[in-house]
Fold:
Amino acid sequence: MQIVFDAKPVDTKPLRDVTVDRLRFALRRMAHQVSTVRVSFTDVNGPRGGVDKHAQIQLHLDSHGTVIVGATASNWRTALEDALRRIVAKVVKTLTQAKRPKRQSMKTLALAQTDG
Structure:
């Protein structure tokens, strides 16, 4: 799993190690299916403050395409944690739906019972 860290504001550079550690921990069960993770941080409002710290996580799953999630909060760590929570839930849902067997119609089931 390759992790790409992209941060526009200068004050997010110390967050790099924490972000990488949290990503590896949160995605440890699914790491074999994730090829690339891109994390980006942007300060929407600039230096004025407020709820404007945005974290976006983009995962490329080997067999299921790309999953993108974002979260906005008043500080970087909260935005990161919210985005991590959302991306894990979305990836689990995507992988679970892929494993679910296709439903058969009643006509197909009736034909199978008459043949056997």
User: Anything to note?
Assistant: Residues 71 and 82 are 6 Å apart (CA to CA).
